[in-house]
Design goal:
Blueprint (H helix, E strand, L loop, with lengths): L13 E5 L2 H4 L12 H6 L17 H15 L3 E5 L2 H4 L9 H16 L3 E7 L5 H5 L7 H17 L5 E6 L1 H10 L14 H21 L4 E7 L2 E3 L4 H16 L25 H5 L5 E6 L3 E4 L10 E3 L15 H15 L6 E5 L17 H19 L4 E7 L18 E4 L4 E4 L1 H11 L2
Parallel strand pairs: 1-2, 1-11, 2-3, 3-4, 4-5, 5-7, 6-8, 7-10, 10-11
Antiparallel strand pairs: 8-9, 12-13
Helix pairs in contact: 3-5, 7-9, 8-9, 12-13, 13-14
The structure holds 5-hydroxymethyl-3,4-dihydroxypiperidine.
5-hydroxymethyl-3,4-dihydroxypiperidine (IFM) binds next to loops.
Length: about 450
Amino acid sequence: MTTPPMPEFPADFRWGVATSAYQIEGAATADGRGPSIWDTFAHTPGRIADGSTGDEACDHYHRYAEDVALLAGLGVSAYRFSIAWPRVQPAGAGPANPAGLDFYDRLVDTLLDAAVDPVATLFHWDLPQALEDAGGWLHRDTAARFAEYADLVAARLDDRVKLWITLNEPFIHMSLGHGMGVHAPGRMLLFDAFPVAHHQLLGHGLAVAALRARGTTPVAIANNYSPVRVSGETEADRAAGAAYDALHNRLFTDPLLGLGYPEELDLDAALVRDGDLDVIAAPLDVLGVNYYNPTGIRAAEEDSPLPFEIVPLAGYPRTAFDWPVAPDGLRDLLLGLRDAYGEALPPIQITESGCAYHDGPDGQGRVDDPERIAYLDGHIRAVREAMDAGVAVTGYFVWSLLDNWEWAEGFTKRFGLVHVDYPTQRRTPKSSYAWFRDRVIRR
Ligand code: IFM
């Protein structure tokens, strides 16, 4: 697909791709790895759309050298991956499992040899099952466990990792995993899931302190954001939009940037102990922004358990996930963050941006994915527009390097720049891979 030339970006702009451990690694029991909540959830009949698990996924654990060669061929300056807590602490506590850390040591060195900066996420949803059995993120102690784990990882890798990301999308982990029950650990607590928000944020703050004590590597968090589009004209519709915005966007940003919790969410005061908000508001070097789509909201029916109703947004193309393709949402989101937080806002990196389509090889074995090229083209231009309007954005990571195991959707959603034939594990770069390399990175 031909697209008009991309506008200029600063020479040191960080172009990367992102993945996460459970979605690609496989090797679920190798080298002493313990079970995570996602192993348990995926192995529970009826939880995953195609009945699959992450037991093998993309077998990245054994094929990481081939995958780093794909990164080198792409020309990215950074690779965002996550570390599986149950590889490092199989039971969620105690000394590190050296064999688990050895894998990330090898990966980091292979990345550096290929001139790709390692960007490591410490928690991308794969909580050790033993911690879940003790209460998981509903339990305050998990925050302290997370900081201990962060310290063990940093002790081994801080000399080479270029950016730490503490948590990935704590909103999604709270809402889908603990509010609605469609992700691990499968709890359906609705607003009683708020302790999961506070304890993740507390764990983040304690982990930031542990990482700072170990070295000088910059630290970030990767939040999921979805700008709200109010559907309807009434005051109740606008109030519903504000309620959703507080829940999805502000709950995990206001306290990080020193504003405390949004008042409208009415968090149980007993949850937040003296000093917690100071721990959570530890200065960040980068705010990671994961963006996929805006959310349409209107007032809920009177008997609804939620103070808003999510409605489909008309007028946009849609991905295989049925998510609207709305690059304007990314621009609006970035401008909105700047307007809401001003000087308190650290530089932003787009830590995930991407789309799922039903990609497959043609008769010649080529995988052509023009929709993904159009998607990325629009979203990268949206970032440039926000930068032109004064928002400090210093990086952009495509989700994802490889087609991979998409949580409750199993293998049915393909997000990769590289196609994976799961039975053979054959990797085939899609046309978006060449486009990203030639039209964006090496322009
Ligand atoms: O695959 C996920 C990723 O793990 C977290 N952010 C959204 C992606 C697409 O759903």
